[in-house]
Amino acid sequence: MDRVTKLASQRAVVIFSTSSCCMCHTVTQLFRELGVNATVVELDEDPRGKEMEKALARLLGRSLGVPAVFIGGRLVGSTDKVMSLHLSGNLVPLLRNAGALWV
Fold first, then answer.
1. Are 44 and 18 in contact (CB under 8 A)?
2. Within-domain flag for 103
3. Residue 38: predicted pLDDT
4. CATH number for the domain including 61?
5. Is 0.90 topped by the overall pTM?
6. CA atoms of 57 and 103, how far apart (whole Å)
7. Which of 79, 40, 86 minimizes the C-alpha distance to 62?
């Protein structure tokens, strides 16, 4: 859990992902299209990835721990929460406040 917290606080936007997860790819692509340079942590490529994924699953209250999106060091949630924020017009202001967008 400490590693997740440390990684999540190092950049404005951090996405915990696995390379084979289509929802992870979708969320990552959304941030790219918005002009955000998110840090993507591929858990299946990290030696401690399984441990981090379990911690993220507990945080999210789900059986799967990815995708898990942190903005400004705070857990936003998974795909459903990110898309809901985007569709309601609340994602971009959140990104601006975190320093992830300058426009």
1. yes
2. no
3. 97
4. 3.40.30.10
5. yes
6. 33
7. 79
